[in-house]
Amino acid sequence: MPEAAALELDGVDIRYGSVTAVRELTLRVGRSEIVGLIGPNGAGKSTTLHAIMGLLPVHQGEIRLNGQPLRRRSAESIARAGIALVPEGRRIFGDFTVEENLRLGLAARRRAYMGDPLAPAFELFPILQEFRRRQAGVLSGGQQQQLAIGRALVSRPDILLLDEPSLGLAPLAVDGIFKAFTEIRELGTTILLIEQRAQRTVALANRTHVLVGGELRMTLGPGDAENTQKIIAAYLAT
Amino acid sequence: MRRPPGAVTELLGPALLVILVGVVGTTASASNEGYFLNALVSVAIVVAIYVFVGISGVLSFGQISFVALGAFAAGVMTVPVESKKGVLTSIFPLLRDHSIGNVPSLLLAAALGGVFAFLVGLPLMRLSGLAAGIATFAVLEITHNVLREWTKIGPGATTLALVPETTGALQATLGALVAITVAFLYQRSRRGRLLRASREDPAVARSVGVNIHLERLLAFTVSGALAGFAGGLYVHLLGSITTEQVYLELTFLTLAMLVVGGLTSLWGAVVGALAVSGLDSFLSRAESGVHVVFTFTLPQGTRLVFLAAIMALVLILRPSGLTGGRELRLRWSLRRWR
Amino acid sequence: MTILASIDLQTLGDAFGQGAIYALMAVGIGLVFGVLRLVNFAYGQLIMAGAYTLAYTSGWPVAASIVSCFAVVVALSLAMDRLVFRPLRSSSPAVMLVTTFAIAFLLQAVALIIDLRDGQLGQVASSIAPLNQAVSVGGVDVRKVTFVAVGVAVGALITLALVLTRTTIGLHTRAAASDFRTARLLGVRANRVIAFAVVVSGLLAGAVAVLLTVQNPFVQPDFALEDTIIVLVGVVVGGIDRLWTATLGGFAIGFVSVIVNAALPTDKTVFLPSVVYALVIVVLLLRPAGLFAWGRRAAVERV
User: Which residues of chain B have pLDDT under 70?
Assistant: First the structure.
């Protein structure tokens, strides 16, 4: 393969004490791709993201960003290397203004750009610009999710990791953020998306991996989105 | 009745260690015996603190209040009547005109400590975390302030002297054993186990119907009674005492002993008290020249520097304490210390 | 209203002065707690070290003496972070607190040894004492240092508020205090934020050292120990979870102590600690999360 994938996991084992949560996970996320990762609760999806971010140690195998191994780096240095996580539950700072939340995202920015540094967020979600002086805690759930995504984007990451971004959102808000993912991809940012909404994820992503019991069970393409039987079968395989 | 495994060593380990220290203490020279007795009384105080802080997991800076109350009650009530009229001129006539014996004074100290702890705990045990720490600290401050300034109940800011020095090797050893046994019986009881469970997870404990407030109050009261008792032992060891001796420094030192030994086990409380007391005694001796292979002398005042530095080092390198906060187990116990 | 009658303007001035100094200490303690979740009992020994520096440099020009006081305190604050706080970061709150007791005793014991070299306890910081003189304002005698204390406190708090709200490091520090893990995930550098908090906390301790030494130029190893304990109590009573509630708590306990002291009959002032600490208990029972912490569960529950 001529070019290294943006993000690679190579035979990764992740353990909590003596319990192996993820086993020999190998997956590649190429540039400007959306790769989905779906699976039942407790399958090891969030665990995988936490390991990528350096919050959990990798017991075996290697995680590489643009060909460079990430072993033993702290969360903050991985963030500044170009991986941005939109954590589960959004984790916005409710007491801070929208603008302050976005400016926090700049902590991981690798270099200065021309113009308004918050532009990547405002262009995608104009509502954030309108509400920039408001307290983030008073925004609606969908707006808070937009803020969390915007906050990750202002660091202009190579890769965006999303941990169940649609969780707890109204259907309309879900439509909004899925539309945003397409736009983010078109702007050249790579996405690794963890979701419970299997069908939508399969339809959106270039590839979607199904993780069950800490192991990869199946890989689905956009064509499989209508094949509900196949998705269900993948979930049930144990 | 079948005993749970480990119960034997859980009691016998600390008890034998204390007896050993007591026996070695009797063979030591007169000038050194004081160090051993002091260590044994420290065990009693630290075990008293452990019964509440260690088992409930709630921080308290207030247990020395009960030690202070016990010490002054036992002290004031055992000074011979004929001496009292001369030295404790302003106290209530009831206290001035009566004196009691050694053992009754220890029981009185324990009773007062328990009652005081119960009354204080009644409102305070609703608190947890830092709020509990500060509220119990406020109790210490008030107790100290009242003991120091209210001359109708004691000597006030002056030294209480002429207290019979009845805490010898036997009383110190037995006293420490009593504290250890009470602590053991309590932590092995159903109530004690419930409280420990609530330490691990208060929400779950509450959801299965444990009344945490009540359980904490019980532990606080038992701890207060033991602390009062230990205060009685302490005053009979010293023979004379001021309010400053049962205040901040003792609070920090005994808490440090507990944490250094391992906050969450009886074994840790005993080991911590003995280890820190032993170190302190060694350093005191070293300041006046000690002979270990060759003679060396520490400069004056360095004892506290070393003591504090070593305690800090232990806490930094072994945050769970010397024993790891575990009880002593029979098999491979020495090897499994870590 | 006998209580109010016994409070004159002079008392009020003293109360503000005391409250101001305690507020500065509260900020110093609260900042470090915010980012490290560590109650630094050894904060008073930073102030003590500053006071000794002032005493030993009494012969120098006042400005040089004050600068060296700040330098010593900040250096000691950073050393404390590197040698003690950093290895303790994953320890339980009880262990952290007890370790800072040990450090406090260690520093006090070191001070005792240094202090006793000339055979007498205590040093006098004479050069900055003139600030302690009284000036007459509208017939009321107020010590100059009271104005200085209030001025320094107000200035320092406004500056700090601006830094925290208007600068990047301030934003990062607030984020770390609110949710450290998420802040790090966003690329906030933990060590930089902690160093910032530790340095600011040290600067405040330096300022407090100067103010307290002016009030009481006789410096001993337990200098500022009692003040630190009272401020720690005030900080928890006010609400340690947030910087501004902690600061208010520090101010309140200093202010209230002076007022209660003036309100008590002269022969009962020895019971001042009992009255103040009884108030502390009442407030904690009514508002365990903090007197000024409205509608929010505080971090105290976690400790």
Answer: 1-6, 289-300, 330-338
- List chain B domain ranges: 7-337
What sign has the CA pseudo-torsion B256, B262, B264, B266?
Answer: negative
B7-337: which CATH architecture? Orthogonal Bundle (1.10)
Q: How many residues does chain B have?
A: 338
**Residues of chain C neighbouring B305 (CB-CB closer than 8 A):** 106, 109-110, 113
- Mutation pick from C99, C108, C225 vs chain B, by most beta carbons of B within 10 Å, is C99
Instruction: Determine which of A26-40, A99-113, A119-133, A221-235 has the lowest per-residue pLDDT on average.
Output: A221-235
CB B321 within 8 A of CB B260: yes
Q: What is the pLDDT of residues C63-92, one digit of tens each?
A: 999 999 999 999 999 999 999 999 988 888
Identify the residue among C165, C185, C297 best suited for mutation to test binding to A, counting A beta carbons within 10 A and taking the highest.
Answer: C185
Tell me how far apart the alpha carbons of residues B176 and B179 are, in angstroms, rounded to a whole number: 5
Chain C residues with at least one Cβ partner in A under 8 Å: 168, 171-172, 174-175, 178-179, 181-190
* Sign of CA pseudo-dihedral C289, C294, C297, C299: negative
Spatial separation of the C-alpha atoms in residues B24 and B278, rounded to whole Å:
13
pLDDT digit string (tens) for A47-104? 999 999 999 999 999 999 998 999 889 999 999 999 999 999 999 999 999 999 999 9
Nearest to C171 among A104, A109, A155 (CB): A104
> Which amino acid, B180?
I
pLDDT in tens, C42-61: 999 999 999 999 999 988 88
Mutate to test the interface with A, among C164, C184, C186, C194 (most CBs of A within 10 A): C186
Contact C288 B123 (CB under 8 A): no
Domains along chain A with CATH numbers: 32-53+72-236 (3.40.50.300)
3-state secondary structure (DSSP) of residue A83:
strand
Q: What is the DSSP letter of A67?
A: T
CA A221 to CA C122: how far, in whole Å?
80
Residue B292: per-residue pLDDT = 56
> Long-range CB contacts (< 8 A, 24+ apart) of A217-226?
A217/A39, A225/A199, A225/A200
Q: Which CATH architecture has domain C2-302?
A: Orthogonal Bundle (1.10)
Chain B residues with beta carbon closer than 8 angstroms to that of C90: 319
Beta-carbon separation of B299 and C113 below 8 A: yes
For C271-297, how does the pLDDT look when each residue is reduced to its tens digit (9 = 90+)? Answer: 999 999 999 999 999 998 888 877 544
ipTM for the predicted complex: 0.91
* Closest alpha carbon to A38 in A221, A160, A195, A237: A195
> What are the tokens at B60?
């308290």
Mark yes or no for CB contact C178/A108 under 8 Å.
no
